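Dear colleagues,

As part of the handover before I leave the project, I'm documenting each prediction I ran so the next person doesn't have to rerun anything. This entry is a single chain, and its sequence is reproduced below.
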Amino acid sequence: MPTTPVVAGGRPPVQSPSLSALGSRPAPASPTTPPAASPPGSKDTFEAGPANPRASSARASSRAGVVDTDGPGSSHASKFDVKASAKGLDVNGSITLDAHLLNATGKVEKQVEFEYRGEKFRATIALNGNLKIGADASLDLKFHVGTDGKLNLDLSAEGFAGAKGELKGTVTLDSKRATDPDGSYAPLMEGKASVTAYAGAAVSASFKVSGDPKTGTLDFEAKAAASAGVGAGFGMEGTLDLWNIAGMAKRIGTKFASSGDALGPQA
């Protein structure tokens, strides 16, 4: 997947299309039995559009965070947290690239677990390549589930001036009930990520989804915003599991405004 340049500075928010217009989905099977996918329908592509929030009730904002250390010599740590508000649920992540460790091993491997309102989340990052950086850098992501039924993924990157080479790999986010220690994690987002040293013109952040929600999944492509100059391209493409996202949202108390939840059945 082609990537776009990123330098330290702006990270304008990008809003996703509404999923409420994509149609209803069949009810999933019981929690112990994976839901059977319906036959795929026609393919449609949706570009990012203006927000149209219709939240019917407010909820006090609250956070739950965790820190993942990078090992000896690291000056920073990777962090993930959750924020719930009247607008919906945001999972925020900052993945630290330790310059000494990355330049020595060519790898970024992290797993961060954290709990929020009875839900246990797990973010897993596995990247490798020949990217060289002169100082610690960071890859940031913000995954949004709105009370208006919208999904969005914002990407940004900082600290890549003078970087050379590239990284490729995967970034995943999944969750399960914290009260079920033997339960399996259910995928929310699975993406292939790429980070490439790049020199070029300014571009805007983008987020696109495509597919038929009746199958329970949508494909996505996200790219970070960039200013003119030298930095790193940061992009992801992969899948969003609508049924698992809807089930997670219900368990942590996120309410949708429309009659009939825009994200479909919620287990």
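Confidence is low (pLDDT under 50) at residues 1-25, 35-64, 66-75. The helical segments are 99-105, 242-251.

All the best with the project,
I.
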